[in-house]
């Protein structure tokens, strides 16, 4: 019996017009569409008048549903895998189904299309020569700072996903661990209220502290440029501000910002004074 094929179909990250003609054709031709959230996907299908069976495939049913989908593929059914937005398999459970299909000698065909990470990188104004995609940082502060410590020496441009209710916490931790680097914050890409903020980590904190923030975020952060940094006597610079009457806390803040240093690094040196 001829086996079916698994098609990886990227969907728009905001603007419905960004779906490709090929993706629309495949969605119309397959036997089944596996979606992260069927309620979300049905809106896209209805918009393009596509009538195909839908089944849910998400992080809470990857094992049992994955085996079920593989059985259907082995029976000869063609299946399209879609996520809520963007490329399946990137920061979503599609990765597990793709691995399972490959392990079972199922042909996997990927279609090109929208990806928030690459779109944000291109529009950031930062180096696109080499980059590292980090996905979502851990939600808890302690684990998040540990992860930032692990990647702080990475010289490639960093791409990070973040949710609106954690954006400020992540930016503050970045300032402390990575220093006041250049970055771009892309929000609501391709949607009506699309915004791309470019500046420093400190400036981004000030920008997004001004009120409630909505939408999904992509942070594009400059890689570690430490070797290009001017060597500085941190304690001497701290004393300069302290002797001017500034508090130790304010002196730490100013030295970190002036010399693009991680605030925690400057703080540790201030304890020796």
List the helices and strands and how they pair.
Layout: E1 5-8, H1 21-29, E2 32-35, H2 38-47, E3 54-56, H3 62-74, E4 79-82, H4 94-103, E5 107-110, H5 116-124, E6 131-136, H6 141-151, E7 157-162, H7 167-177, E8 182-187, E9 195-200, H8 201-208, E10 217-221, H9 234-242, H10 248-258, H11 263-270
Parallel strand pairs: 1-4, 1-5, 2-3, 2-4, 6-7
Antiparallel strand pairs: 7-10, 8-9, 8-10
Helix pairs in contact: 3-4, 6-7, 7-8, 9-10, 10-11
Commentary on this structure:
With 273 residues, the chain is α/β, with parallel strands linked by helices. The protein folds into three domains: 5-110, Tetrapyrrole methylase, N-terminal domain (Cobalt-precorrin-4 Transmethylase, domain 1, 3-Layer(aba) Sandwich), CATH 3.40.1010.10; 117-223, Tetrapyrrole methylase, C-terminal domain (Methyltransferase, Cobalt-precorrin-4 Transmethylase, Domain 2), CATH 3.30.950; 229-270, no CATH class. The chain has eleven helices and ten strands. It has helices spanning 21-29, 38-47, 62-74, 94-103, 116-124, 141-151, 167-177, 201-208, 234-242, 248-258, 263-270; strands at residues 5-8, 32-35, 54-56, 79-82, 107-110, 131-136, 157-162, 182-187, 195-200, 217-221. Helix 6 links the parallel strand 6 (131-136) and strand 7. Helix 3 (62-74) packs across helix 4 and helix 10 packs across helix 11. The mean pLDDT is 93.
Quick rundown:
This protein has 273 residues and is α/β, with parallel strands linked by helices.
Our estimate of the beta-strand percent is: 15-25%
Shape: elongated
CATH architecture type of the largest domain: 2-Layer Sandwich
Structural class: alpha/beta
How many separate domains?
3
What is the chain-wise order of helices and strands?
EHEHEHEHEHEHEHEEHEHHH
Rg over CA atoms: 23 Å
Would you tell me which CATH topology of the largest domain applies?
A: Methyltransferase, Cobalt-precorrin-4 Transmethylase, Domain 2
**Annotation field: number of helices:** 11
Topology, number of strands: 10
Helix content: 25-40%
In CATH terms, the superfamily of the largest domain is: Tetrapyrrole methylase, C-terminal domain
Report the major sheet.
5 strands, parallel
Q: pLDDT average, as an integer?
A: 93
CATH class of the largest domain reads Alpha Beta
Report, as a whole number of angstroms, the end-to-end distance: 77 Å
Low-confidence stretches: none
Strand order of the largest sheet: 3-2-4-1-5
């Amino acid at each position: 019996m001829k086996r079916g094929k698994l098609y990886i179909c990227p969907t728009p990250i905001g603007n419905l017009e960004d779906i490709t003609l090929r993706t629309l054709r495949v969605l119309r031709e397959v036997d089944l569409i596996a979606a992260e959230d069927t309620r979300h996907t049905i809106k896209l299908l209805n918009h393009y008048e596509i009538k195909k069976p839908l089944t849910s495939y998400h992080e809470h049913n990857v094992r049992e549903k994955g085996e079920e989908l593989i059985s259907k593929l082995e029976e000869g059914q063609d299946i399209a895998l879609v996520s809520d937005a963007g490329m399946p398999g990137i920061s979503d459970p599609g990765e597990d189904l793709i691995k399972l299909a490959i392990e079972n000698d199922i042909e996997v065909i990927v279609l090109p299309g929208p990806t928030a990470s690459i779109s944000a990188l291109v529009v950031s104004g930062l180096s696109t020569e080499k980059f590292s995609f980090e996905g979502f940082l851990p939600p808890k502060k302690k684990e998040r700072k540990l992860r930032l410590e692990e990647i702080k020496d990475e010289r490639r441009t960093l791409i990070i996903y973040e949710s609106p209710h954690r954006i400020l916490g992540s930016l503050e931790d970045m300032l402390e661990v990575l220093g006041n680097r250049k970055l771009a914050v892309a929000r609501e890409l391709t949607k009506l209220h699309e915004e791309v903020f470019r500046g420093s980590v400190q400036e981004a904190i000030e920008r997004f502290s001004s009120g409630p923030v909505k939408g999904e975020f992509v942070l594009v952060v400059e890689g570690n440029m430490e070797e290009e940094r001017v060597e500085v006597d941190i304690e001497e610079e701290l004393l300069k501000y302290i002797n001017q009457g500034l508090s130790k806390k304010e002196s730490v803040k100013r030295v970190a910002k002036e010399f693009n240093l991680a605030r925690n690094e400057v703080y540790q040196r201030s304890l020796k004074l």
